[in-house]
Amino acid sequence: MRRSVGLDLGTTNSALAIATDGGEVTLARFPHMGGLTDTFRSILYFHPDAADERRAITSVAGTVAIERYLEADGTGRLIQSLKSYLADRGFESTNVFGRTYSLVELLSFLVRALRGHAEKQLGALGPRIVVGRPVHFSSGQGDDDDAFAESRLRAAIAAAGFEDIVFEYEPVAAAYYYESRLDHDELVLIADFGGGTSDFSLVRVGPGARKQAEAAGGANRILGTDGVGLAGDALDAKILHNLVSPSLGLGSTYRSMLGKDLAAPVWLYARLRRWHLLSFLKSKKTLELLNEMNQQANEPVKMAALLAVVENDLGYHLYRAIERAKVELSQREATRFRFNEPPVHIEHDLTRAQFDGWIAEETASMAACVDRLLVRAGVAARDVDRVFMTGGTSFVPAVRALFDARFGADRIEAGGEMISVASGLALRARELP
Length: 433
Known about the structure:
This protein has a domain of about 170 residues: Nucleotidyltransferase, domain 5. About 40% of the residues lie in helices and about 25% in strands. The strands form seven sheets. Strands 1, 2, 3, 6, 12 and 13 form a six-stranded mixed sheet that branches. By secondary structure, the chain is α+β, with helices and mostly antiparallel strands.
């Protein structure tokens, strides 16, 4: 019997769901801290001692990867946010402990691990799967880059054993999830915020809208889609750049071998604030530069802290500290940022007003994208019945305020932040012939 399977392969978290012919959705459950969770962390971990018979370094994925990384006390290589590389033509492969792995291989390891966990619970998934994709991939510069990214994503999923792969826009999938709970028709704006992209879709949903479309031979109920290649990771990066990087030497100097004072290279901090690039700073060449800077630094404590973050692969710990601060600012007006991983100790007060100011450019890009979508679809904000916000970044007050201002707080609805897309993809899979 054919199964209706949906996969939301996210930048930070992934989820997988199956749907019955009657529309009941079951989410795969994954191990997490001795229990189970609906999401699978999109992280790989490689340990230099974990080699197979071909001397290839084997990986583990998900929360197991995090556990192994923590147990190893920073030894090994933790790789996250792989989806953010898909549109980047400059990233083909990377070296992990002497073995070269392509981006497609790395992503296939992630999908294969996710599939293995899911099948232990749900049984064989079969050859067909509906996979979510953003409207515009992170780092992409146009339609050609989006097509290139999708082709690499398809290759990775095929390498994990799926033969029939269908793509659907992530906000459209979230619309299927939202519609499954309705007993009336609406024109809904879906706002789906992931780790790497923010995606929007205007869709007519509800039982009447569905029947009307079916009677018209499958007429399109989607009035328009758009998106921007920034979301939660970009907001985290602003905290890192403005609050953390100065404590890691940003703006400081070091004395070169020729006796000249040189500024700490800005490119180091540009990579530091992008999670999918941070783990790749741990190369021989970069570590040599950091050691030289550390020995000749005019602010040695700060430069030593930067070296420790890179050398000890503390990116995950730093990410968690920033994530905690961001979550706390969604609940109150101020918090204290704390990152204490010896020998690095960083503490700063942080207010929501500061954070809102730092992310003003990003929220303006999101707002412009929504306005552009409304104009292109010929829909006035007053004609949108409901706005459905989903994904982790939907909790950020400055992001929520964009929609309150345009549509009114009474028309905003939220839910299914981590599972709406996967559930909707499974429901979308039911429609396939």
